[in-house]
Design a protein that fits this description.
single chain; alpha/beta; Gyrase A, domain 2; Rossmann fold; 4-stranded parallel β-sheet; 25 helices; 12 strands; flat; binds arginine
């Protein structure tokens, strides 16, 4: 409707474009000022006219076309054209869209591929809260891009190569056993790694041994690789438990070890392109022209490193997937690393690197004030957080709704959902302070509040006899009237209208989140829908209203629950039907 109005306005003022009006159009701060307001000040100079007069003339023109444009009335106030839409027409259009395909979200991404590198934990190290953030943010971006039609390749770039594995093999042989590692998993691997680092200061030969084992690994020695592979299996089993709790999977687990074998060819190419410099026996790319420290490519012993494996990974992914974009979700502290890698790729003659490679950084998680269970000192395992969240949700269910069916499943959805929502609600770059009271509260901007709102909507529909609907059934499938037969004038009051307007912002929220790589845009949108819904619920009786009113309001409730559930899905959060 806005576009239609803007198209019409171009016929009223010379040398204007629809886009120009679209950018000028404001959303007034108060509902009594209309749905849109057009400030006319910027036209004054060219037209040599008082903005007040321009607003009056435009208002008169719009009024003459009101029916055609779906406008109820237009007021010219102090140089602004305040436009009031025909609420009935608007509500009808919005609800039809919300009920329609993809809930009204267009799919500009069809036919395009985006690679997403996220989670990417390190073998034999614990899956900590930082990895929980990249996992949750990356998964949400995947869902958001998928919603827009993109083909997303979910890549878990495992940290599975490096000198630390030489140390681990020595430590395993000296201080651990197959049984202990099999029983305790990563915790045992971390214990012996810490022990190695303590002992190496007392016994210099330990480092020598570790180096030898790593050399064996690089030379594909059978024993070395089989121990390393076993550490990898043990670690992946633990990571999988976290992914299962979160309901997350990946398309590729190709990690750093895969790319080490591609580094020699990379070195050749860099040499040919005159990009390599020798520095104390190591090979580097000089980036001083870009105000960056040199990018290390091979160590003095010729081995690959994190940077060169990442450069090889960019080239491999471009060739394999033909991505339009490749996103990297990691902590802010890796910013320089990615700047160096992206610059190196570009210097190799790949101009696409500039727009296609994107680092998506996030802030730290602080645990201050929160009592979190931890196994080794103050290292907090993601799995422990998720489990504790589920236990706490279960305790809340036991006191608030002990007769609930599916208690276990609901506690999982609420606990895990609460952690996810808390992680995604603020801009990702902000630091997150973890505090159980905030995470699990039923009030405010929390996962449980959103889930509770959804469950409330579903309960209203059940009570109205709108029971076992399938995912995409229309309201008319059950006790609700056909959406076309609904009298939308019953949704023109302030609370209903405000809710409908909020609902219609879904597409913009999804697009905004994708453009800025920012799931918080969707999380905030969800909160705005939930609070508009709760306001509507308190102001408009539903089940006790007249039949015609009831049908209209139920149709709105139905659209709300569908969009809420869909939007929560974009965060990776489930919504229980009952709470
Ligand atoms: N394994 C790294 C870490 O735990 C993250 C890897 C991110 N991805 C990449 N392609 N470098 O910090």
């Amino acid at each position: 409707m806005k576009t239609q109005i803007c198209n019409y306005l171009t016929t009223q003022l010379p040398e204007t474009t629809s886009e120009q009006f679209l950018t000028l159009m404001e959303t007034p701060p108060e509902a009594f000022m209309g749905d849109f307001a057009l400030p006319c000040f910027s036209f004054a100079k060219a037209l040599r006219k008082n903005p007040k007069l321009i607003a009056e003339e435009l208002a008169a023109g719009l009024t003459a076309q009101a029916d055609k444009l779906g406008i109820e009335k237009v007021e010219a106030v102090n140089g602004y054209c305040n436009i009031f839409l025909d609420r009935v027409a608007y509500v009808k259009q919005c609800l039809t869209t919300a009920n329609g395909e993809n809930h009204g979200v267009q799919q500009p991404g069809v036919g395009k591929t985006v690679c997403m590198d996220y989670s990417s934990p390190n073998i034999a190290k614990n899956f900590h809260v930082g990895h929980l953030r990249t996992t949750v943010i990356g998964n949400s971006l995947y869902k958001i891009y998928e919603k827009l039609g993109y083909d997303v390749v979910r890549i878990n770039h495992l940290g599975d190569w490096g000198t630390q594995f030489g140390k681990l093999i020595v430590a395993y042989k000296k201080w651990s056993s197959k049984e202990e590692i099999e029983e305790k998993g990563i915790e045992e691997l971390m214990r012996i790694y810490v022990k190695f680092n303590q002992e190496k200061d007392k016994d210099a030969s330990l480092m020598e041994e570790a180096r030898n084992w790593f050399v064996k690994m690089e030379q594909n020695d059978e024993e070395a690789l089989s121990i390393w592979n076993w550490f990898k299996d043990i670690s992946l089993m633990e990571f999988e438990r976290v992914y299962k709790l979160l309901g997350i999977s990946f398309d590729s687990y190709i990690g750093e070890s895969f790319y080490r074998e591609k580094v020699p060819a990379l070195v050749e190419e860099l040499k040919e392109k005159n990009l390599l410099t020798e520095s104390q026996g190591a090979n580097v790319i000089d980036l001083s022209a870009y105000d960056m420290p040199p990018c290390l490519i091979t160590k003095s012993d010729g081995g690959s490193i994190y940077h060169s494996r990442d450069i090889a990974a960019v080239l491999y992914r471009k060739q394999t997937y033909g991505f339009e974009k490749c996103l990297y979700v990691t902590g802010l502290e890796q910013s320089l690393h990615f700047k160096q890698v992206f610059t190196a790729v570009k210097l190799m003659g790949n101009d696409w690197a500039e727009d296609a490679l994107v680092h998506v950084p996030y802030g730290l998680v602080s645990m201050a004030g929160a009592k979190l269970s931890s196994r080794t000192g103050n290292i907090v395992y993601a799995e422990d957080i998720l489990k504790e969240a589920m236990e706490r949700a279960m305790a809340a269910i036991q006191t608030k709704n002990p007769d609930l069916q599916n208690k276990e499943e609901t506690a999982k959805q609420v606990g895990v959902g609460a952690v996810i929502f808390h992680d995604l609600f603020n801009q990702r770059i902000k630091n997150v302070e973890f505090n159980w009271e905030d995470v699990l509260s039923f009030e405010g901007t929390t996962g449980p509040y959103v889930q509770y709102t959804y469950a409330r909507a579903k309960s209203i529909l059940r009570k109205a006899g709108f029971g076992d609907e399938t995912e995409d059934s229309m309201p008319c499938d059950n006790a609700l009237a056909d959406i076309a037969a609904i009298n939308y004038k019953h949704l023109a009051d302030e609370a209903s209208y405000a809710l409908v307007k909020t609902l219609s912002g879904y597409e913009a929220a999804v697009q905004g989140a994708a453009e800025r790589y920012e799931p918080s845009v969707v999380a905030r949108y969800i909160i705005s829908v939930a609070s508009a819904f709760n306001k509507f619920y308190h102001e408009c009786p539903i089940l006790n209203a007249s039949e015609e009113e009831k049908q209209a309001r139920l149709a709105l409730v139905d659209a709300v629950q569908k969009v809420l559930k869909d939007a929560c899905g974009l965060l990776g959060m489930e919504c229980p039907e009952e709470m």
